[in-house]
Amino acid sequence: MSFTVINPATGEQVTEVPAWSDAQVDEALAQVASVTPQWAATPIDQRAELMKQAAQVIRDNLAHYAGIITQEMGKLLAEAKGEMEKCAWVCEYYAENAASFLQDEPIESDAGKSYVAYLPLGTVLAVMPWNFPFWQVFRFAAPALMAGNTGLLKHASNVPQCALAIEEIFNKAGFPAGSFRTLMIRASQVQRVIEDKRVHAVTLTGSEPAGRQVAATASNMIKKSVLELGGSDAFIVLEDADLDLAAKGAVTSRFLNAGQSCIAAKRFIVVDAIAEDFIARFKAGVEALQAGDPMDDSTSLAPMARSDLRDELHQQVKDTLDAGADAVTGCEPIDGPGAWYKASILDRVEPGMRAYSEELFGPVAIVIRARDESDALRIANESDFGLGGSVWTQDSARGEQVARQMQSGCTFVNGFVKSDPRLPFGGVKRSGYGRELSHHGIKEFVNAKTIWIR
Predict the structure, then answer these.
(1) Is residue 156 very low, low, confident or very high in pLDDT (cuts 50, 70, 90)?
(2) Counting C-beta atoms within 10 Å of the first and last residue's C-beta, which end of the chain has fewer, N or C?
(3) Chain-centre distance of CA 202, in angstroms?
């Protein structure tokens, strides 16, 4: 068995990477278990020096790692370089801030001295997706390792070279052998790893079905889990919005990474009074996107990561059109080899249509028309997902009030949703639970231990 790498831009096979046997998995788990106590006992300033070195390894090899991303999942090379820069940033952020985040917290009680100590749990397994193949991993790994945990990675099957490169980065940085291991395993082997007593917690970024399976197994074993699942982020455009700014933000938010992002704007909820003007601007920006070689800096629309995902997206679009939605632009695959789909807009999407309630994970925007602010907020909140969202209005106080009422893990006013090491990230409802990043993220996988002394 092996993992086959297909270049999504050309449809050509690049390489194959062997999958592991159960015996190889056990060998890796044993190695990680042997180093876990040593790493937990390593002073945090020493961990920080190694994490800074990991950032340096990334920066020194940035073009190389970005090229692997583009080859394996099709991301524009410029975007891939930006992803690697962000990985270096999160390493530096936790190297600089973990000690203060994890310092003992004094609490007054009936003891002579009492406080909370934030101590590592042990080994954390990460089950990660292909769409941001380095960033998704580093936003878990940097805080988890700085907290004194060891890490295991089960990556998506279509990005095996990225998976191996991440372990390579930590090894080159000088981390103890076994403190972070990539497991070259199939999805069918994940349950066994979660159930292993040498694994103490699990985090997953991915689909809702995968999240349900991982959470069920972790819960059955009474192990901590964090889930970041799908999203159907609302992008509310109110009647007083700066339409040029909103349309520009809409194009970036929806079509970055070919629309393959959990926090991409997916539902453009536009107040009727300005709907036609906004759509005209949005259409012009979308039609200016140019598909082409993702290694070429002039290309602005990447291929999708896999042909099966492209075909699934097109079926969602066709079903929505058949139900009465309007095709503003695109809405069909691009002819030729590779997993290409036109940058698309669907208008007049209404309840009962697939695109209204399902996540469209690709370069397709849907427009839902609302009567007014209240109706827009109702539409935004009736989704089963709650990852992120944005509000566009020239009245920032008004935008803030709407933002507080949106049922999501984060809401941006006059800006598109993005993750930032300084801010907590995660969802509500069927978008998952728990938080990554900021001081909130590093405390997800620690034992908040009470110490009481007479």
Answers:
(1) very high
(2) C
(3) 16
In this prediction the pTM is 0.97
State pLDDT tens for residues 68-124. Answer: 999 999 999 999 999 999 999 999 999 999 999 999 999 999 999 999 999 999 999
Structural Rg of the chain based on CA atoms? 23
Q: How many CB atoms lie within 10 A of CB 231?
A: 29
The whole-chain average pLDDT of the chain stands at: 98
Cβ neighbours for 449, distance < 8 A, ≥ 6 positions apart = 116, 117, 118, 119
Alpha helices in 109-159 (DSSP H): 135-146
- The residue that leads in pLDDT, 1 or 399, is 399
Q: Which pLDDT tens digit goes with each residue over 265-274?
A: 999 999 999 9
Query: Over the stretch 400-430, which tens digit does the pLDDT of each residue have?
Result: 999 999 999 999 999 999 999 999 999 999 9
- In this structure, what DSSP letter does residue 417 have? -
Q: How many CA atoms lie within 13 A of 24 on its CB side?
A: 11
Instruction: Please check the confidence at residue 198 and state whether its pLDDT lies above 90.
Output: yes
pLDDT of residue 1: 80
**Pairing between β-strand 446-453 and β-strand 113-120 as defined by DSSP bridges:** antiparallel
Contacts of 27 (CB under 8 A, 6+ apart): none
Given a contact cutoff of 8 angstroms between Cβ atoms, the answer to whether 386 and 426 are in contact is no
| DSSP codes, 246-307 | HHHHHHHHHHGGGG--TTSEEEEEEEHHHHHHHHHHHHHHHHT--B--TTSTT--BPPPS-H
Reduce the DSSP state of residue 341 to 3 states and report it: strand
133 pLDDT higher than 90: yes
Q: What distances in angstroms separate CA 247 from CA 77, 105, 160, 168, 403, one per listed residue?
A: 24, 46, 36, 41, 19
Helix (H) or strand (E) holding 323: none
* Helix runs in 125-222, H state only: 135-146, 160-173, 190-195, 208-220
Structural domains of the chain ordered from first start: 2-229+431-453 (3.40.605.10), 233-420 (3.40.309.10)
Mean pLDDT of 3-28: 97
Q: Which residues are catalytic?
A: 228, 262
Which residue in the block uniquely carries the two structure tokens 């069909």?
332
CB-based burial of residue 150 (10 Å sphere; 0-12 exposed, 13-18 middle, 19+ buried)?
buried
* Chain-centre distance for alpha carbon 277: 32
Phi first, then psi, for residue 235 (nearest 5°) are: -125, 90
How far apart, in whole angstroms, are the C-alpha atoms of residue 126 and residue 152?
6
Q: Which residue has the tokens 């066709």?
A: 318
